[in-house]
Each structure stands twice: as C-alpha cells, then as structure tokens.
Amino acid sequence: MNIRNYARPLLRAAIPVAVCLVPLSGWAASQSTPETDPDSGMVIAENWQVVKANCSACHSIKLVTQNHGSRAHWEYLIRWMQDTQGLWEFQPEMEDNILDYLATYYGPKSDARRAPLLPSQRPKNPYDSDSDKTVSAGTEPPA
Ligand code: HEC
User: Fold this and answer.
1) Which CATH number fits domain 36-109: 1.10.30, 1.10.760, 1.10.3470, 1.10.3290?
2) How far apart are the first and last CA of the chain?
3) Which atom of ligand 1 is nearest to the CA of 64?
C-alpha cells in the first residue's frame, strides 16, 4: 500500500486552508507591529528622525525607547537633561514635535508591572513581630 494515497486528500484540504491564512497573517502583522527603523528600533512615524537626531547624541537611543511616559513625564526628562546634563534648548515647535512623537509611541504603559504576590506566596518577613521565630540568627533584625 502506498502512503501517498493517504497523504493526497490531506494535502488537497491543506492548500485552501493555507491560501486563506496567508492574507490573514499579513493583516495581523500590519495590525500589531508598527514599522520600525532597523538601525535604532524606533517606531517610524512623523518626526521620528528629529527625535533620533536630537536624542541619540549623548546616549543610546535605546535609553529613550526603553522608557515610557506621559507627555508631562517626557517634558520633565527633557527639562532635567537641560538643567543638569547639557541638553540644548529647542525651538518651541520642534519641542512640541518631539513630545508628540514620544507621548504617542512611547506613552505610559499600564501593564509594565506585574500584579503583587499574595501574602501566602511571599517569603516570611523576619521583621514582622507576629512571624514565628524560626528565622536563623544571622537574619534577625537588630534589637
Ligand atoms: C546633551 C546630552 C543629552 C542629550 C542630547 C539627550 N540626553 Fe537624555 N540623558 C542624558 C544623560 C547624561 C542621561 C543620564 C544617563 C545615565 O543615567 O546613564 C540621560 C538620560 C535619559 C533618560 C533616562 C532617564 C531615567 O529615568 O533614567 C531618558 C529617557 C532620556 N535621557 C531621554 C532623552 C531624550 C528623549 C532626548 C532627546 C530629546 C535626550 N535624552 C537627549 C543626556 C542627554
């Protein structure tokens, strides 16, 4: 008996399924992943090059893209770098463009922190007066 006789109907069924999935995967990719610059990893959108040029002179642009925050937080960071790190002043319009880009593509993350562990899942707290006294002497809190 020839194994290919079993495979043929399977193949025949698989082809239309594959044909349907190809355009679907293209659609999914366009929905979930914005286009990024291969060099910096930055999201390619209006003003990205202004941000790249101005924000990678002193440190890696990765320091920028690994951070997230509101427009006010980005403005606060820019003021901090201007006051303490020698960052230059921007024309108001250019600063607006930079802040628009950062707040839109590197905005606040609501899911950046994991949920706290339940008390029953945490290690024993040696400083808790109610905890039993089986903790070894080296970790006892000072009297
Ligand atoms: C004149 C130099 C300079 C330029 C230009 C510059 N930065 Fe910075 N930035 C610094 C220094 C210095 C630090 C501190 C680096 C460190 O902690 O190692 C820093 C830190 C940061 C941090 C980390 C802050 C934190 O919470 O630790 C972010 C985010 C940042 N910069 C964003 C930017 C953005 C956005 C721009 C463009 C608008 C920019 N930087 C341009 C000097 C600069």
Assistant:
1) 1.10.760
2) 84
3) 29
